[in-house]
Structures are given as structure tokens and as C-alpha cells.
Design goal:
Elements (H helix, E strand, L loop, with lengths): L9 E9 L2 E6 L2 E9 L2 H10 L5 E5 H6 L5 H10 L4 E4 L5 H9 L4 E4 L1 H5 L1 H10 L4 E8 L2 E4 L4 E6 H8 L6 E6 L11 H10 L4 E4 L5 H7 L7 E6 L1 H4 L5 H23 L1
Helix pairs in contact: 1-3, 7-8
Length: 263
């Protein structure tokens, strides 16, 4: 069993896999790659040791080319960790979702297929209750697909409204304009997505400092349940253990205050 946590905002460290290595892309651009580590298992264990309660993996090769080149790394990570691991990138068929869940993942994230084959989302959610998440990546409010290479005319909030009724566990929403920039999350877009969704929303993109994390706390009440953090952790701008404590403290203070009131 992994570490227990207070209910509320969860921080998910991100490991983006490209050719078996840990990398980050700037605004989803495959030509702007920063390589952080050639040992994703060691990196995953490090995040777990700092208190992470869930890990977020992105298969960039899968997202762009639909090729399962990172499956060995994925399996090695899930076998090494005690905490649940979720993964997105290139999950475009029932068979691929089954393969990945068989690798030991707790959840798989559907992206492109959610807009191209919404009936598959419903089928997978029924087949794997609580283990299917939809990733909605948006630029200027509209959904982007195929590893952010293609732009659609579908409003992200409309897709969230439709797909959150299919039995999925959660929606991960990424604002492409802020992803990898450390410029702060798009709070307005996040609020709109959470208000449009019937399931919890996990924020992704733009978190660059502790203040950005704390700025998300008011959105818990509308359904933002977690936040994925990548570059800021690798750059040392955010200390994971400290961030986990900081997001827990408001709830600890609430509980302490309630106990004092009841005394």
C-alpha cells in the first residue's frame, strides 16, 4: 500500500517518456525537448520517496506515433513503485488500454480517441470501472489532438460535459499555451472545465512555483481534485515534499479549528 493522504488536492509528479528517457517538451513541441534523466525508474522512486501518492506518466512516442516503444520502462516503473501510476499517450484502442493496464498501471488516459471515438470511451469505462481517465488538451479553448499536432473545432468545455457522463473516473485538462512555460496555470479555463464536468478534474500545465499551487486551492470546491507538475519539480522551483505539506496545511487547519470549536 502507498502512503495515505488527506482528501483534497493531490500533486502528481509527471514523467514524460521519449525513447525510454525522462524528458519535457515546451508547449508540446517535439523539437523543443529537455532531457532530464535516462533512468525513469530511479526518478519515479525518488518522487515516491518524497511523498507522492500517485505518479503521472506520458508516453510521448505513443502520443505522436502510436508506437509502444516505452512499454518496458512503463512496466519497470509500475513494478518498482508502491503507489498507483497512471499513463496517457497513444491509448487509441480497447486492446491498447488492456495492454497498458496489464503492465500494472492503475489508470489509463484517453486523449485523441475521446474526440474521434467517444463510444470507445464509454466501452472502456464500463470494462474498467474507475480506471479510465480522459485527457482534454486545449488551446484557446478548443481541443487539440494527435500529441497536440492537430487542432479541432470542438470546445473543451463541451467535450468535458459530454464525456464526464460516460462513467470515466476523472478528466485531466491541459492548457497547451501554458504547458512547460512555468507561467502559472490558466485558472479561468480550469474553473470552466471543472464546472462543465460531472467528474473530478486534474489540472495540468503552467505550474512554476508554490504560489501557483496555492492558487489552485479555491478551485477544489468546484471539482479540481489534483494537479500534475513536471518541469518545476525538475528545475527545483518546487520541492515536492514541501508542496504536499503546503497543500495539506489548509485542511489540517480546518480540522484543528473544527476540533477547537467542538471542545
Amino acid at each position: 500500500m502507498g502512503p495515505s493522504r488527506l482528501p483534497g488536492m493531490e500533486i502528481l509528479p509527471a514523467i514524460d517518456l521519449l525513447d525510454g528517457a525522462c524528458v519535457r517538451l515546451h508547449q508540446g513541441d517535439y523539437d523543443q525537448v529537455t532531457r532530464f534523466s535516462d533512468d525513469p525508474v530511479a526518478q519515479a522512486l525518488d518522487w515516491q520517496s518524497q511523498g507522492a501518492t500517485r505518479l503521472h506518466l506520458v508516453d510521448l512516442d505513443g502520443a505522436k506515433r502510436g508506437l509502444p516503444v516505452n512499454d518496458a520502462a512503463i512496466k519497470a516503473i509500475t513494478q518498482a513503485l508502491d503507489i498507483p501510476v497512471q499513463l496517457g499517450g497513444g491509448v487509441r484502442s480497447l486492446e491498447r488500454a488492456d495492454e497498458l493496464l496489464d503492465c500494472g498501471l492503475d489508470r489509463v488516459i484517453l486523449g485523441t480517441v475521446a474526440i474521434e471515438q467517444p463510444e470507445l470511451v464509454r466501452s472502456l469505462a464500463e470494462r474498467h470501472p474507475g480506471r479510465i481517465v480522459v485527457g482534454i488538451d486545449a488551446k484557446d479553448g478548443r481541443v487539440a489532438t494527435r500529441g497536440w499536432i492537430e487542432q479541432s473545432d470542438v470546445l473543451a468545455t463541451d467535450l468535458a460535459r459530454t464525456l464526464s457522463s460516460t462513467g470515466i473516473a476523472a478528466i485531466i485538462t491541459t492548457d497547451i499555451a501554458t504547458d512547460g512555460t512555468l507561467a502559472g496555470p490558466n485558472l479561468t479555463a480550469l474553473r470552466s472545465m471543472a464546472q462543465s464536468s460531472a467528474v473530478p478534474v486534474i489540472a495540468s500545465g503552467g505550474v512554476g512555483c508554490m504560489a501557483d499551487l496555492l492558487a489552485l486551492l479555491p478551485l477544489e470546491s468546484v471539482g479540481v481534485s489534483g494537479v500534475i507538475v513536471g518541469r518545476a519539480l525538475y528545475d527545483g522551483r518546487i520541492d515536492l515534499a514541501e508542496a504536499i505539506r503546503a497543500l495539506a496545511e489548509p485542511r489540517l487547519m480546518d480540522v484543528t479549528g473544527m476540533a477547537a470549536d467542538l471542545a
